[in-house]
Amino acid sequence: MVKNLIDGFSDFKKNFFGTDRSFFEQLAKRGQTPNTIIISCSDSRVDPAILFGTRPGELFVIRNVANLVPPYQPDDNYHGISAAIEFGIRDLGVKEIVVLGHAFCGGIKALCSHVRGEEKDDREFITPWIKIALPVMDQIDSKLEDKDVHKVEKASIVNSIKNLRTFPWVRSLELANELKIHGWWFDMEHGALWTYDNKKKKFFPLKTVS
Questions:
Q1: What CA–CA distance (Å, rounded) separates 177 from 196?
Q2: Candidates 3.40.1050.10, 3.40.50.2300, 3.40.309.10, 3.30.450.20; correct CATH number of 32-205?
């Protein structure tokens, strides 16, 4: 697999970097000026740059298990996700945030297993992490059948948006209409993208050009 990565880089250098070297020189000189933060899952099947056809420098991508956003909690502990959000908002000045969830998310499946009492007890970091989304389980049938997992995936996106708004500088910028927050759910099985309507409190398929 590592050889495939090296071969892929060789292809990138020849066919991408080599044909547009001035583009990368400009990126190096002026730094990054992305307009959008994408908070997405670490899942290898969900790559924001591929999904949205973007070039280097266009997205500030923050990836973690189950695309979770923790609540605002400034202290001396390690807050990698919060630090990345702070950098994107306060230093890069992004104007939009997308929380991108997806179908068949392993992190959300782990949350459901935890609620059922079926989680793997040798996982030292995953269970504490996915508990960030535990509040959403109050909205889900306690029996939690497999068909409910997509509901949990979507509810978790909404919970992450709620947590985003606990960051004072996120909230103030949104209230000033200088920042927009979106919740999207990618249905990888059907190649569809769903968006959360904050007024109707529901997800709807996003209309795209065929």
A1: 18
A2: 3.40.1050.10
| CA dist., res. 10 & res. 17, Å (int) | 10
What's the predicted TM-score (pTM) here? 0.91
Q: Could you tell me the two tokens for 156?
A: 């978790």
Q: Mind listing the pLDDT tens digit for each residue in 85-136?
A: 999 999 999 999 999 999 999 999 999 988 888 877 778 899 999 999 999 9
Tell me the Cα Rg of the chain: 19
* Rounded Cα distance, 18 and 102, in Å: 34
Among 91-95, 148-152, 166-170, 204-208, which stretch is predicted with the lowest mean pLDDT?
204-208
**CA 176 to CA 178: how far, in whole Å?**
5
